[in-house]
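quick one, 494 residues, struct below
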Amino acid sequence: MLHTPLVHGQPGGTAAARPKKVALDISHARSRARGIGAGAGPVVPQSVTGRIRRIKWAMLWFCLGVYYLLPFLRWDRGLGEPNQAVLLDFEHGRLYAFFIEIWPQDLYYLTGLLVLAAAVLILANAVAGRVWCGFACPQTVWTDLFLTVERWIEGDRRERLKKLGAPLTARRLVEIGAKHAAWIGISIATGGALVFYFADAPTLLLQFARGEASLFAWVWVAIFAGTTYGLAGFAREQVCTFMCPWPRLQGAIWDPEAFTVNYRDYRGEERMSAKKAAEHRANGKPAGDCVDCNLCVAVCPIGIDIRQGPNFACINCGLCVDACDGVMTKLDRPRGLIDFETWRNIERGRRGEARVSRLVRPKTIGAAAACIALAAGMATAFALRADGAMSVEHDRNPRFVTLSDGSVRNAYTIKLFNKSGVPRAFALKAEGVDARLELLGGEPGRPIAVEPNNSTALRVTLTAAAAKAGPVRFVAEDTDRGERFTITDRFIAN
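---
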């Protein structure tokens, strides 16, 4: 519990309006229980219009457009290479993203990308709290889409609440059937679009249309469709509140200087009807701007009451801002009773101090610097990466073989990778150990050819007359460019 003093009316109120303790509960679990717990019924968000809602509409259609259309974008990579702009080619072990090509040996780039994404989320949190959750998270986007379909078919909040528990009529059954049919259609399209990222999208779409797609593809479409249907159609706010780890992380990195959705309680309290508030003001008595219409709760997709104080279940979508601003406009009162504001400024407002914006501060500077450094480091490493590579795997069973003449033999599997678009030839040798290198199935001394954008696996043995263990370094040298790739393993003798 966070307790802060609150003076009725504007700061500096009279003695008659003595300070009152207001409890601000920042426990998302307890707050949610009050909002949508027993007796409160399910969360049925009401539609709302306004500036934030328009931004959310733009983000929704942008995210959906990117998701559904991206697999169909083409990118010319040359003869014999896939021309899909974004493709996860598991068959050949490649990840394509426009001009970027990631091999299994380059997975550390994906690790770096995940670290960069985490740093960006921390930066976004320092600036505007859970703004990612409220505008661009897939759970938010698809839930918003499902809710839109639900409103088109069943009506807005008031109509849907009336229908909860009402007798089933023919019209009601048609509405329910149409809603779930639309949800299932969206879910299937979502699952199909995700599968398109793993194969050539136009080809796979044609196979689906003809009924020629593999059972494997249909199974994954069903899995992804079922996930979308369950999470966006039924779980909804429960995913954001209980299943997602981000609210728990939010508790650790919460920043009172971040621009999150907050209620200016020093302006809104004491709540009363608009008529009563007008009478109080006419008589020189303090009156809050909040008329307790509860519209901010009605439009909330999580079902919380932001007027109870900072709440980590809040996804910072800002729909309550639009709802409250609409009411304030009708009442001819200043907008911004609920607004994107820092908690520090809420506290300053209670004390009658001027608001201060600290968007640029050590935390945001440090997070931004970390993001820039990570991005620059990854870009530099990617730009300087070699277009070839080598890997080695020592045989495990047996690790070595003692021959009849007393010499010791170790066997290895070596893979040579050619990441360029032209054929390459490599000369292979071993250093660091006095042993004879033999290429099984190959001609001694002949360069090893590797096709463009391909790899070659080799069986190699090292035979040493004197059984002496130690490190061995394999060297593959491009016979044309002189580029060398090295990797170190061990020669085992006992």
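Confidence is low (pLDDT under 50) at residues 1-39.
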